[in-house]
Design goal:
The protein is globular. It has an 8-stranded mixed sheet with strand order 3-9-2-1-12-16-17-15, sandwiched between helices. A 4-stranded mixed sheet has the order 8-4-10-11. It is α/β, with parallel strands linked by helices.
Length: 347
Amino acid sequence: MSVGGPVSAAGPSQGANNAPSGGSAAAGTDASVGAPIAMVAVGGNALIRDAQHTSLQDQYDAVCATAAHMVDMIAAGWNVVLTHGNGPQVGFILRRSEIATGQVPTVPIRYAVADTQGAIGFMFQNAMVNALKRRDIDRQVVTLVTQTVVDTKDPAFAKPDKPVGSFMNEDLARQLAAELGWTVMQDGNRGWRRTIASPQPVRVIEAPIIERLAREGIIVIALGGGGIAVEETTNGELHGVEAVIDKDRAAALLAIEMKADLLMIPTGVERVAIRYGQPDEKWLYDLTVADAERYAAEGHFGAGSMGPKIEAIVRFVNARSGARGVITNVESIARALKGETGTWIHA
């Protein structure tokens, strides 16, 4: 079984040895103009190593570790657009808001997402600038608050089923639902939580700006948390809506819209497996879209874990002729780009 290699400017079929080289990229931004673009979607849980490391300083330390591996990618000649999840962080904001109910105004979801775009964006922007400086790589980094259009007729709005925020007992959940117009549900055996719609992303408003910056060699941090959900009215105005957007689906959409060459989704494992954790577990190296879809149909990828990642890459690869996607862990980014590891998906 062959191992998938990085996508070069000329296309993925040329393999790992024809990936962008890093020598000239470190000399300045001129070499990065026109280089291939990689969309990298880092999960929000990557910022929180465990329940004992949840402080903002702990999260920043985790971001710094990720940034060092991201610089490996930039040194190899890629122009990078980085997006990040924000599930735990939005949960923290909503919990603070719940505790302060009756004392200060509650925080709507759209503003919580916007808050995390700024805060997590700052962490990555600061960490990336410092990591680049240590490697003597001259690149600029910018964070962009990003809006994602959704369709208010999406079926997800009729049945909000995405749990957000903290766990609570049933009495408090129903009280807040009555007072604040929430929908709530029991989430496993840990208690009750607020639920919110998670519609399909339709369009990333700032995609043309993000693409323009990326093609000029500027490292862009954008689309945090899948973007702030907005509806577009008939006269073209944008209005925020109470919804959250799956980060991987939104990353695939943005990667398509800005004509990226690679969609990379770092996760907690070096490669994807089928029959994970079972005696006949099998690690996957190189998959066609048909392989990935077949394994997904057989139920090998969990809906709350690997499923959305596979779905996102399949959507991207189907829409972008010659492009590829890869799933690996952050620590293996450099090796994956050399074709040494990761699970690669291609047409």
